[in-house]
Design brief:
Layout lengths: L1 H8 L4 H7 L4 H5 L1 H13 L4 H22 L1 H9 L10 H4 L7 H5 L9 E5 L7 E5 L3 H14 L9 E4 L9 E4 L4 E4 L8 H14 L3 E4 L1 H14 L2 H8 L4 E4 L6 H11 L2 E7 L6 E4 L7 E2 L5 E5 L2 E5 L11 E12 L2 E9 L5 E3 L5 E3 H6 L11 E8 L2 E7 L21 E7 L15
Parallel strand pairs: 3-5, 3-6, 6-7, 7-8, 18-19
Antiparallel strand pairs: 1-2, 4-5, 8-9, 9-10, 11-12, 12-13, 13-14, 15-16, 17-18
Helix pairs in contact: 4-9, 5-6, 10-11, 11-13
Length: about 425
């Protein structure tokens, strides 16, 4: 019902939508939004003892809830002999087993919740899971807190580049988040489209651009090709900040945005499973996790997360698949730097336009994520690509193409089923082959 209402609101005409954007988020999402915003702000002033007390309380509660409510956890904790374990400090917590995505995928039927999400995960391993009713309240309270560090508030319109399939539309206004969602499958190096972008930016005085780093980088390169120097200077006087999420912002991308467009930016680390959320205020690949969002820890350089608020499908000591270097303060993870994570790979359509894979594969939340163990993509020539799916179960799921939303992309796709994913020489999983 909530998704249906959001979809209906997103399609209202701009004059009406503009009025709706003025409704405060605490009215839209309830008082919990304000409570969380205050808690986040206060938590940054807490002493180490206060932080530790808060975390232990949250971890203890979610451990007891998970094993009391779900057979998946009661069985695995019995196997490891930790059913009666009381979480009194972090050394107790580390006695719990680390949970693999594949383990949860096979046990999905033992969980239920108000909303089911399909995701490609951080490395191309499809995954379906449930989130609780308050998940989006927590998400937006934390996200707005990050953006506000760069001067944003919800009354400011923004441009969003996330790989949405808008058909022939250049952009669509979404009043839910006061955003103009642009169609990244249109070639904005063509002057008529670049001018549409310029006119919107100047008429609406848009200061913020939000989206995947690879999509924003590619978009601005195309805009540069479609406008003259004077028009570019006009845009530079208005747009000032990029809000970069879902991928690690590669240096060549951020350097271009800084040097050519004089754009500031802030990036954050997060993932669909909502276990860890961290932000990099200093733009130096140093991410500070929110302890009010979830618990982040590092084991053998791998980031491990716990969603201690999601009581519909708790993810406890969950492997994110991202490699990091940790900086500790006392016994707690203070910050981390990403050494291997999600980056902005591209493929090309038949006209040479770069299509960011984060938007194409992960941004569309394909139904295929419920069936296949891995999704990869291979391209040997522009305009043609092969989607490779790994099906370890051996079951037949019918035609692969029926499970993917690949409309509005000028690429001929073929499909191939594998018994095992293609790995690099060092044994690492590769999204793009």
């Amino acid at each position: 019902m909530i998704s249906l209402l959001k979809d209906l609101v997103s399609k209202v005409p701009y004059p009406i939508g503009k009025i709706l954007t003025k409704i405060p988020f605490n009215y839209r999402l309830g008082n919990l939004y304000t409570v969380l915003k205050n808690e986040i702000e206060e938590s940054e002033k807490w002493s180490e003892d206060q932080r530790l007390t808060y975390i232990i309380s949250q971890l203890s509660n979610i451990k007891e809830t998970a094993q009391g409510k779900f057979s998946f956890y009661s069985k695995i904790y019995a196997e490891y002999g930790v059913t009666d374990l009381l979480i009194k400090d972090l050394s107790d917590w580390q006695k719990l087993p680390v949970i693999e995505k594949e383990m949860l995928r096979g046990a999905l039927k033992s969980f239920s919740g108000s909303q089911k999400i399909n995701t490609g995960g951080t490395t191309g391993e499809p995954f379906a899971f449930f989130v609780d009713r308050q998940a989006w309240v927590r998400e937006w309270a934390h996200m707005h807190y990050i953006w506000e560090k760069k001067g944003y508030n919800y009354l400011m319109p923004k441009i969003t580049l996330r790989g949405r399939n808008l058909g022939r539309n250049i952009y669509r206004f979404n009043p839910v988040h006061n955003e103009f969602i642009f169609n990244t499958y249109i070639d904005f190096s063509k002057r008529k489209y670049a001018l549409k972008f310029k006119d919107l930016v100047l008429s609406k005085k848009i200061q913020f651009v939000h989206g995947y780093p690879s999509a924003i980088y590619n978009f601005f390169i195309e805009i540069e090709q479609g406008l003259d120097k004077g028009e570019i200077e006009e845009i530079k006087k208005t747009i000032r900040v990029c809000l970069l999420g879902s991928e690690f912002p590669l240096e060549y991308m951020t350097s271009y945005l800084r040097e050519k467009w004089e754009l500031d930016y802030i990036s954050w680390y997060g993932h669909s499973e909502m276990c860890v959320l961290a932000y990099d205020i200093d733009r130096n690949n140093t991410y500070v996790p929110f302890l009010t969002y979830g618990y982040a820890e590092v084991s053998n350089h791998e980031l491990i997360g716990t969603s201690y608020h999601n009581t519909d499908m708790p993810l406890i000591r969950y492997r994110t698949g991202d490699l990091v270097d940790a900086t500790m303060r006392e016994d707690l993870l203070h910050s981390f730097t990403v050494t291997k994570g999600r980056s902005g790979d591209f493929i090309e359509d038949r006209h040479g336009k770069k299509i960011p894979l984060t938007g194409l594969i992960f941004g569309r939340h394909h139904i295929a994520f419920e069936f296949y163990d891995f999704v990869q993509i291979e391209q040997t020539r522009a305009g043609e690509a092969t989607i490779l799916v790994t099906n370890k179960s051996g079951k037949s799921f019918g035609r692969i193409d029926e499970y993917f939303d690949l409309g509005n992309v000028d690429i001929d796709f073929s499909f191939k089923e594998l018994k095992a994913p293609i790995l690099s020489n060092s044994g690492k999983f590769k999204l793009k082959i």
